[in-house]
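Q: How would the C-alpha cells look for this protein?
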Amino acid sequence: MRRRLYEIIEVARDGDVVSTVYDVMMLCSIVVSIIPLAFKTTNIVFHYMDAITTIIFIIDYVFRWATADYKMNNGALKSFLKYPFTPMAIIDLISILPGVTLLNSGFRLFRLFRIFRTFRVFKAFRYSKSIIIIVRVIRNSKEALLAVCTLALGYIIVSALIVFNVEGDSFETFFDAIYWATVSLTTVGYGDIYPVTTAGRIITMISSVFGIAIVALPAGIITAGYMDALNEEKL
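A: Here is the predicted structure in C-alpha cell form.
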C-alpha cells in the first residue's frame, strides 16, 4: 500500500489517473493558498481557505515522509531520518507553518512570518516536468554556473570599488556602490543612484556593456543544457 501511495504522490505517470488527479488537486491547493497574499486585509473566507489547504499540505507532508524510503533508497530508518532535512521537505514544512493557528498567533508580531506562505509556490515545482528538467540541468551545470557567478561577483566588487572612489559625492557608503554595480551589471539601472562626473559615466557605460555579456552566459548555459535534456527525453 505504501508503494502505491508513493506512486500516486510522485509526478504523474502516463495513464495513472489517480496520480494525475492528486497532482491537479495539489496544484489547485497551492494556487488557492496564496490568493490571500494578494490582499492586505483578511476575512472569514480566507481563514477557511487557509485552514483547508494547510490540512491538505500536512497530509501530503505525512504521505511523503511515510514513503521516503522508496524515494531516497537509503534504507527505511535512514530515509525517514534524513527526509525532513531535504530541501523540498524543508520547503513543505515552512509552507505549512503559517497556517498553524498556534504558531501563527505566537509569531503574529513578525510580519515576515506571513511571507512564508510564498514558499508554497515552490511546492509546485515537483508537479511540473519542465521545472524538474530545469532543476536537473542546473544541477548538472553547477560548475559552469558557479564560475559565471564568481565572475559576476568579482566584477561587481571591482566596479563598486572604482566608482566609489571616483564618485565620492554620489555614493555615501560602499553598499550604495555595490547596489549601483549590481543594477548596472544587470542593465536595469533604476536611476535612484547614478554618477554625475564624466569619468563615472564612462565607468557606467563600460559596466553596462560588460554586464550584458556576463548576464547572457548563465542563460546560454541553462538553455543548452535544457535542449540536451529535452533531446534525451525524446530518445
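The first helix runs from residue 2 to 9.

The chain has a mean pLDDT of 81.

Upvote if useful.
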